[in-house]
Amino acid sequence: MIQFRHKGNLSKTSRFLERAREAVKIGELDKYGREGVLALSSATPVDTGKTAASWEYRISRDKDGVTISFRNTNIQNGVPIAIILQYGHGTRNGGWVQGRDYINPAIQPIFDKLAQAAWEEVTKP
Fold it and tell me: What is the pLDDT, as a whole number, of residue 65?
């Protein structure tokens, strides 16, 4: 048999969870969205510059929280160019163009800053 005993209330835990949920405000996410677009644009391999200039972000809120997402709108013949630059692609004559991991190194520092800011907000006394 398993028993649990509890003394007091859960007010500190509830307060912590409420602060965690509200830690990063929409305005803060907007700042990180702009930084992310700049970082992705700067890191994108350039031929014509269209893919580098086609980054955007979107912030959405639902009952579970807030999400920031990045996307690239340069799509040629149904092919998302940013993705084939990242992962590589086949050529018409059967060759292969190796991809280059440019997205992850560009966006990771932004995610790290966002996580640090959220953690500092949640752990404020």
Answer: 76
